[in-house]
Amino acid sequence: MVRFAGCAWGWTDILGVVNPLLVVIVSQLLFTAGDLVARLKMRQLGFGAEAFVSWWFVGYMGLRMLATFGQLWVLSRLVLGAALPMFAAASVVLSMMLSITVLNEGLSTKTIVGGGHAIAALVTLTLPS
């Protein structure tokens, strides 16, 4: 068991108190960060072999691997019908936020209203019956 300095908790104890929603958000943030890097690098380098044999691609795959481990952990804790809508809602929220803030793409009223409806529907699917 791995112990932290000054802490009597092990990994299993810490993972036992982690909220799956937090892991969903962190996982989606990792996927999104990787996608932003990939968008930038693919526009710079093009879709050729040299773009994939580079350090940025190793980092990109590392981010995606960490995010996948987070998703797998959530799937081991929640039923599929609750986990997948959480992933989708987090993805829609992050995409919309990044479109406005980081990418400066702006969103039409139709997109904002449609995105809000999609998020509401996905959140509703995660609620207990």
What is the CA-based Rg, rounded?
18 Å
Beta-strand residue fraction = under 5%
Q: Identify low-pLDDT runs.
A: none
Task: Work out the count of structural domains.
Answer: 1
- Rough outline: flat
Q: Which class of secondary structure composition applies to the elements? A: mainly alpha
Strands, count: 0
Count, helices: 6
Q: Average pLDDT value? A: 83
Series of H and E elements: HHHHHH
Q: Give the termini distance in whole angstroms.
A: 38 Å
Largest sheet: none
Helix content: over 70%
Task: Give an overview of the whole structure.
This protein has 129 residues and is mainly α. The protein is built from 6 helices and no strands. The protein has one domain (19-126). The longest helix is centred in the first third of the chain and has 26 residues, at 20-45.
Descriptive key words:
0% strand; 129 residues; 6 helices; mainly alpha; 77% helix
Overview in brief:
With 129 residues, the protein is an all-alpha fold. It has one domain (19-126).
List the helices and strands and how they pair.
Layout: H1 11-17, H2 20-45, H3 49-52, H4 55-77, H5 80-100, H6 109-126
Helix pairs in contact: 2-4, 2-5, 5-6
